[in-house]
Fold:
Amino acid sequence: MKDWSALTVDEIGAALGGEPPPEGDLAALEADPRAGARGLAAALRRRMAARREEAGRIERMLEREHSLWARGVSYVAGVDEVGVGPFAGPVVAAAVIFPRGVSIPGVRDSKVLTHERRVALDARIREAALSVGIGAASNGEIDRLDILRASLEAMRRALLDLEIAAEHVLVDGRHIPGIGAPQEAIVDGDATIFSVAAASIVAKVHRDRIMLRYDRLYPRYGFARNKGYGTAEHIRALREHGPCAIHRRSFDWRRARAVSRPSAPGP
Structure:
């Protein structure tokens, strides 16, 4: 057990780097006569508890995947789409297949994450996944097919983009036509199923990057900020300049009420 008495509280904190020490060392900090050392120990205990809680949450999100893996289904794909509501740009879907034993703290519905957190998690998801597929349907396809069918087509394309064929598909609340694998449509799957939540993050980050490129092509509409959603700024630009090449002509923006922000926190 380490003797902390020779170190100042700041030195102890620097030595630990925010990571809880072994139980014996943590108990010694809790018994330290210095209030600062005891406060540091209490903060480390809270961090340990938060990590246990998060690990439990992730395990609950993985219950469906674990059930399928236990039945011998190796390649379970989670699928989700983003971009149903915007006035402009494509609808984008992602499909993600993970190996058994995966666990990435922080994975949850992309809509409740900040832009920075989504980007960091996207990198971790891609690193951990066996395969990631992306599919999209353009604004022209949305106008021709309608947004529901275009969304389903984007999800089908995401599955086809996988390097490994999915043996079972978990999808957020939809049934994807034209795929051979068994599938389950799970209501609120992006909030309750690990691989579906991961797909929602990947799809959101990918679509946001597309809209940033469009912002450089069509700077009048604020796509870097609104990602094509009907913010007050975006509606004002439409009224002043009319639609551009990536606007969805089937969406009646003239009657729309402005949203206060895009569908999820972003830059």
The CA atoms of residues 32 and 156 lie 60 Å apart. The domain at 63-212 is CATH 3.30.420.10 (Nucleotidyltransferase; domain 5).
